[in-house]
Design goal:
Blueprint (H helix, E strand, L loop, with lengths): L16 E3 L7 E3 L16 E2 L5 E2 L1 E15 L2 E20 L57
Antiparallel strand pairs: 1-2, 3-4, 5-6
Length: 149
C-alpha cells in the first residue's frame, strides 16, 4: 500500500534576485522558508525491516515565462506565451523537534568495550580488631547531637 500526501505548499511571485550578466547567460537566486503544516499530522521518517517506509521529499517547481521588453522600459514587458517548467526534488529527513531529550553530542553513552566485565572485588573475610583498646571519653565530654531541649 502506498499513500502520498502533500503536507505543505506555497506559491512565490516575487522575492528573487536576477543577474543576467553572470557567466553562462544569467543567474536567478531565491531564498524561501520551508515548513510543514502542523495540522497535517506529519510523521517522522521511518525505514523498518517489516517494510514500513515513511520518507519526505521537497519538490521545487519553477515556471519560467518568456517576455519581450525594450531595453529602455523593463516595466512594460509583454508575455510571449512560451514558458518552461523546471522541477527538481530534494530528500528531506523529518524528525522530532530537537532539544527535548538527551543531547547525544554532549553526553555520549559509554561504548561496550569501555564497560568493565564486573564490579571490583571486595575482601570477603572479616576479622576482629586486634590492636590496643581505644580510649572512650566520659559521657559528659561528648557533644549531644540531634537532641532538642
Amino acid at each position: 500500500h502506498e499513500d502520498l500526501r502533500m503536507i505543505g505548499s506555497d506559491s512565490l511571485k516575487k522575492g528573487w534576485k536576477t543577474d543576467f550578466d553572470a557567466v553562462g547567460g544569467g543567474q536567478i537566486e531565491l531564498e524561501f522558508p520551508a515548513s510543514i503544516r502542523p495540522n497535517s499530522n506529519p510523521v517522522c521518517d521511518v525505514d523498518s525491516p517489516t517494510g514500513l517506509v515513511v520518507s519526505h521529499t521537497l519538490i521545487l517547481e519553477v515556471i519560467v515565462a518568456e517576455e519581450h521588453a525594450k531595453n529602455t522600459s523593463l516595466r512594460h514587458a509583454v508575455p510571449t506565451g512560451a514558458a518552461r517548467v523546471l522541477r527538481t526534488q530534494f530528500k528531506v529527513v523529518v524528525t522530532e523537534r530537537g532539544g527535548l531529550g538527551v543531547s547525544w553530542d554532549e553526553e555520549i553513552p559509554p561504548m561496550y568495550e569501555d564497560v568493565p566485565v564486573s564490579p571490583p572485588g571486595y575482601k570477603t573475610t572479616v576479622t576482629d580488631y586486634q590492636g590496643e583498646e581505644l580510649p572512650v571519653p566520659p559521657e559528659e565530654d561528648l557533644e549531644r547531637m540531634g537532641v532538642r531541649d
